[in-house]
Every structure is written in C-alpha cells, then in structure tokens.
Amino acid sequence: MYRFEPNLRIPGPTHLPPSVREAGGRQMINHRGPEFAALLARIDRRMRVFFGTQQEVLLITAAGTGGLEAAIVNALSPADRVLAVPTGAFGDRFAKIASVYGADVTRLETEWGRAADPAALRAHLAADADYRAVLLTHNETSTGVTNPIAALAAVVRELAPEALILVDGVSALGAVPFAMDAWGLDVVVTGSQKAWMAAPGMSMIALSERAWLAADEARMPRFYFDLRDARKTAANGQTPWTPAVAVMYQVDAGLELMEAETPAGVFARHAACAAATRAGLEALGFRLLAEPAFASNTVTAAWIPEDLDWKAFNGEVKARQLVLAGGQGKLKGKIFRVGHLGAVNLDDILGAIGVLEEVARMFSRPTEPGAAVAAAQRAVLAAVEARPAAAEGVPA
After folding, report:
1. What digits encode the pLDDT tens for the residues 87-99?
2. Which residues are within 8 A (CB) of 212 and not within 5 positions of it... i.e. 6 or more apart?
3. Domains of the chain
C-alpha cells in the first residue's frame, strides 16, 4: 500500500496529527505575557487528569531524560541510599543518573522481558528497608513491558513508608490508566514526544507534597532543573527559563484532541492497537519478548528469528515506508520493536502488519496470505469486549 508519509512505528518520537503539526508553526508569543500564562495553565489542568493528581504538573524544556534527572536532583542528596528496580535499558538509565549524582544505588534486577515482581520487592525490603527513595519504571520501552506500579508502590508504602517513590512514566503516561495520588507516588515524569503526540523537547513532572518537602532538603547540585524555581514561576504563569514555546503549542493541541476523545477512549484505543500488534506479529511467527500479562500497550518487542537476515528484511520493510525500532542495550540486534502510542489508529497497525506479511512472504517465511491481518482484527474485537472498568483514582 502506498503511503504519502512513512508509517512511523517507533516508540517515539511519534506521528503528529495535522492540528498538532499546525500548532507548532504558530507565531511566537511573549513567554512572560498573559497569553503564555493561559497556555501554561491549560496544559497543567489537562495534564493533571492523565497523571491522576491534584498536584501541579510542571513543564521543563528537556527530553524525558532531563525530566528524570530533575526528579533525582530535586528529591535526593549525595550518599542517599536508593533502591532501583530496573527491568530494561531505561530503568538502567534512571539508576545511572542517581549514581552519577552520588546516590548509593542498590539494584533489584529483573530479567529483561519480565516485569518487576512485587513479591521480590517485598522480600528485599523485608530484609532491608532503609532507603531514601525507590526508582520505578512504569513502561520499559526497551522490552515492551509495563510494570505493575500500583502493586509495587503498595509494597514500598507498607515496608518502607518513608521512602520516596520516583516513577519514569515517559512512555506510558497519557496512553494507559494512571493514578499518581491514589497509588501514593511522589515524583512522576513524562515526555512530550510519546503519548502526548507532540515533538520532542518538553518534559512534564509532578511532585507530591512530601516530595516538595524533600526538595527543600535535597543537596544534589541543581540550577536549570531546580523545580522549586519552576513551581514559583508557574504560580505567576511563567517558566524560570525560556521555554520551547512551539512544543508547548503542540502539547496543548494534543491534549485538546485527547480531552475530546476522553481518557477512556484514549486508553481503549491504545489497548486495541497493542492487541492487534501482538496478534499480528505472532501470526507471522514472531516470538514476543514480554510476558503476556505485562505486555505494553505502547510498544511491542519481538525476537528476531536466528534464520532471518534482519538487515535485508528490514531494508524491504523500510522501502515500503514502514519504520520500526531496533533493540537497545544487550538486546541490540536481537529484537525489533513496534511502537503503537500517541496518534495511532487501527489502520496504522493493520497497514504495518500487512507490510510485514508481504515482506515475510518475500523471504519465504511460513505465512498464510491475510492470516496476520485477520488475527490482528480479531484481537481488536476481543480487546473491545474485554475492556475493564477504570480503577479507583484512574480517569475514566
């Protein structure tokens, strides 16, 4: 099928809807004026719904990694004991940031492709609960696994009640149900180029009241990422430093679309697209990396078969305007990933599965014509029928 634009199926940056693209081209405004103050307030108000919080959502001009760095330096002091629970490359990155700033980091490792286990966390904290903070990753982009944040946070709250819970929500927030306040989370970070359907360049972050108290005591060095300044200036409708105004326009336009669709509609669309992706890939004979119970609704990772020349295969896929992501870290060259977040719909996924099926047949893979697309369509129907009710504290 001919496409005027590539089918960008990577887990960020994501495809931009027309209204979002147009928003990025608007004329600049005074970032110290009333128009900007209204823009900032509107984004904050709409973001709180998807964060599941009554706290303000601050915007800083940085990619998601900058947001994670801000989380670390505003919550911690050098030599603070920190428990990291990495389940992939981005969980590793969160832990490394804390280490670089002098935190004493202990890692509770999980095999890549599996979710963090609340029972394992419980056993660890039962033996040693003396931590200033616990670092969690909601959605591990490198493996296509969504961790059970509510269950993990409940364990921390029970066994290490004084520990701050810092969450990397970069590739999950806005696409799946989330309840920062109800789950007892202290710092949550996301980024504009993921589910929010905007260009890269903005990180959004929210802190609990006790995290704000910690920020006053934290002694890690900070200047640009000092969230106390961001909070103070946000109260006056400004940011402490010059913001990426064009990206903020796009975030605002994306949130307008999401508000019209409703959170429940956004979550259901992501769940359906994820189910279609997984079913289509399995029908093509690809083995998925993630445990089914914790498979991500924003990105799916699949093993590259040993007998497949992936470079040649992917070359044919790219020639058909389908763009996939490769593996990261120790999974580089071993898996490929299909992103299904942001401005994604079922036509995008069915088109991607159709291309993969066409190329698979070129490479004499054992596939039945139309079977993969049909499997994807059946999965969508099953996902709609199995749609769960919203959990307490999660926007419906």
Report:
1. 999 999 999 999 9
2. 231
3. 7-13+262-385 (3.90.1150.10), 19-259 (3.40.640.10)
- Separation between Cα atoms, residue 389 and residue 396, nearest integer Å: 8
H or E stretch including 107?
strand 104-107
Helix (H, G, I), strand (E, B) or coil at 133: strand
Element (H, E) at 251: helix 245-261
Interval 271-280: pLDDT, tens: 999 999 999 9
The single-letter DSSP state of residue 275 is: H
Residues of the chain falling short of pLDDT 50: 1-2, 391
What is the spatial distance between Cα 298 and Cα 137, in angstroms, rounded to a whole number?
14
CB-CB contact of 48 with 57 (8 Å): yes
pLDDT at 387: 65
Q: Please state, in angstroms and rounded to a whole number, the distance separating the CA atoms of residues 209 and 347.
A: 43
140: β partners: 145
Provide the pLDDT for residue 384: 74
Tokens of 60: 């800083």
Which residues on neighbouring strands pair with residue 83, listed in sequence order?
106, 134
Phi, psi of 136 (to 5 degrees): -125, 150
Token pair recorded at residue 270 = 């992501």
Q: 301 near 290, Cβ under 8 Å? A: yes
